[in-house]
Predict the 3D structure of the following.
Amino acid sequence: MRRQRRRWHLQACVVQPLPEHTGGYCDANSTVVLDTLKMALASLSVKAREAAVAVASADAIIRTIELDGGLSEQEIENRLAIEAGQHLPFPVSDASMDFCRLPGGNNTRASRLDVLLVACRREEVERRVALLRSCDIRTAVVDLDALAFYRLIGDEGPDVTEVILDLGAGGFRLHAFAQGRLLYSRSHQAGIRAGAPSSQIAEPESEPRLVQEIRRAIQLFLISTACEHEITIKLAGGAAANPGLAAGISAACGRPVSAVQTLPGNSSHARVAPGRRHTSLPQLALACGLAMAVG
């Protein structure tokens, strides 16, 4: 992705599946992932020298911290280093942390500032950096998957909560945003619900298993956050293009559902086959959101 004159341009894209014997899932340290990534890079028609990579929200600690207004960036960082010790289940010395100032929302006092703190174990960052280094790529940004999605879809308005379902081979992740803020993020293993409280929810026999799991995940989100806004649901990930999935989720949840689309005004390079951008974008949504952090 490259930004030119306030518009994002898709320069090139490639999808390289993992080998069938992996079932579509491998640990990031696996040599299978490294070999697959090298094949993907070899298929690109441009030379990639730097990249952004994501840490899964499930592997991170995400907290909104209220601080005094008027603090400098260094003062915020110092305060957060102290605050982090109260929220991390591991020593601060083992953590990689970052923060960003949040737009006005629940905190309307001018003298106060809301800051989003994201922290994870340093080893989670280091193994991703090592993976890219093995491909002769410099790591420009280590991002959070949920924030990369939000960079792509933007904000639909103050009275709308946007839910993104990132549908993978072994399960899915649900991210929810409102007013520029990450409200909720949770991973779900599709089809594995034994003993969960949500299993008490009645399941219509006509619903496919994945739709049932998504419906329960949406209900859990609504109960956990007491969300009262209008909700839109967008699908991303490898399973997002399954025929009838969007319609099935919409019927089960009673909410509008669509696949992730590009931002208005996006265009693609001539080397990208006609129609490829639109048919592949849900599958490449996370990659596009990450690339926008570098481009």
Observations:
- Residues 19 and 49 are 25 Å apart (CA to CA).
- The mean pLDDT is 82.
